[in-house]
Amino acid sequence: MKRILMTAAALCCGVALLAGCGKKDRNVLNIYIWSAYLPDEVIAEFSQKTGIRVNYDTYDSNEALLEKLQSGVADYDLVVPSDYMVTILAAEGLVQEIDHGKITTWGNLDPKFLNKKFDPENKHSLPYFWGTTGVGFNREKFPNGVESWGAMFDAANAGRILMLDDVRECFAVALKYMGKSLNETDPEVLREAADLLKEQKKLVRTYNSGDFHNILASGDVDLAHGYNGQMAEAVSAAPEKLGYVVPKEGGTFWMDNLCIPAKSRNVENAYAFISYIMEPEVNAKIVNGVSYASANAAARAFIKPEILQDQAIYPPDEIVARCEFLEDVGEAATVYDRLWTEIKAQ
Amino acid sequence: MGVKRTTTGTRTGTSVKEEAATPKKAPYLLITPAWLVIGLFFLLPLIFIFVISFGARGTYGGLKPIADWGAYLLSGEFLANYRQSLEPLYWPIYWRSFWMAVVTTGLCLVISYPIAYYIAIIAPARWKNLLLALVVIPFWTSFLIRTYAWVLILRTEGLINTVLMQAGLINAPLDLLYNEFAVMVGLVYGELPFMILPLYASLEKLDLTLLEASSDLGANHPSTFWRVTVPLTMPGIVAGIVLVFIPSIGQFVVSDLLGGAKSMLVGNLIQNQFAIARNKPFGSAIAFELTAVVLLLLLAYAWWSKKKGQEAML
Lengths: 346, 314
Description:
Structural class of chain A: alpha/beta
Order of helices and strands of chain A: HEHEHEHEEHHEHEHEEHHEHHH
Structural class of chain B: mainly alpha
Oligomer: heterodimer
CATH superfamily of chain B: MetI-like
Number of domains of chain B: 1
Number of strands of chain A: 10
Radius of gyration of chain A: 22 Å
Strand content of chain A: 15-25%
Helix content of chain A: 25-40%
Shape of chain A: globular
Distance between the termini of chain B: 23 Å
Strand content of chain B: under 5%
């Protein structure tokens, strides 16, 4: 009996502890964000200024974010989904509408990045970073640079190619090379693209989504399909050896956006944080720290000129014009998955 | 269990009853934590997976709501994921996963046996603990990091190529990474301790006088080994095979990191369904099938040990 009482007491303590965790602590902000997207310095300064304690977790895929928010166990106040994921989160009712009036620094945003198809009128999101997917190359092996996605399908480059290990990004390369939209849903066109990718697999040294820039820099491959942010990091470390380009057919254009989850319990703190990181100097500090292009026009004045001039980070307008957003393809996602499995099953 | 045996016959009926009840209840109470852990972390998730595997994919992840349960069950639609998992598209993936697990297990056995034999029988007693510690120490580092270390060793400008080039043994770097060879190296490396430890446990118990008896009776070394040592260490061999084969068949990190993610394994297939295709029901169906295969193997193992009258080592 004594033992049962002890156990019951212990259980009660445990429950009390758990309940304690759920207690409303007004001075907290829980952020869920991509890794290497917020310099610690900026968070520390925000906390110092406002007294709001910031907790932050990181994820490495939009799907991980979706999963976390759908499960309902997460307790986040600010998340940073990419374009197509904003559409899904809004459709699923997982993020709340944003009151533009509460963001004191809204006017600093570049209108060029507002009212995009994935969130017309920016009801649920505001742009944070943007960029492209293109090709990183070894200048010693490609002194004239890379012009077309064709290089990734050229048998002359066998064994020197890296592709992102990502079904949509790989199909985007094949579809753009074919002159199609990268949001194609026609099964026959997708079949053609899959055939191209199947042939290409013989030339590919490795598929990799997390470490592509290091693999390129280490000389294991000479051509690497990848996101501009990490590529810029590798290129700036060895500018005479490496380069980055968006091929002439165009590639993926991506935007990561600030959203407030529907279940956020610290909405005011989220607004305070958003307003803060969109102040020109603060925003510039973030860009200077992590080397991604910001959608903040006012911040440009404070961003290091070498970053603004780096075409890998801030690609020129004519390149951006040839790029497309990845949109959610809905039911066609299963077609993509089957074709991808077919490519990888060989 | 420390049960007091009463020799005096003067006890009352109730106290005898109590005394008899204690040894019966105590073992069950003691294994409760184990059952809780198994229930919470193994059975409950498995039940979730099993239930979800009969659903259909919702467009944005999650499950598609079912309008008419009767029709759903009668039409056999609830089995769609299992039917899909048997399509020829997936056969090469299952076959490769199985085959790689078989080869990994075989290589591990061949490499581990001499090591375990050395540690258990040949090595001086004072070395034993040190050698065993060396087998176990790699576990202190995450498996992912240890696998990544192989990337640094095998890559074009990695350790092996640099050393061989500097020594003048090769002119051009060898292609060591992003192929089947690299995957095998990674898999065997990772699973080796799981083979060495049960083999060691078996060999350690080996009665050396039996080996002497064997050679006294005229058997040479190879026949002593094959006809005495191997049969007597069979429990360790089978335990090692089970311990290595099961993790290898669901392995996918090694093939991604060292094999260049070029060939999908069943682990990748399952992971893709959950993380990328947002098709939890299909992913659950394959995951359940894999679990079922593994459980069948374990049952076969349990049956084998029972038949042999040997104590199962797992």
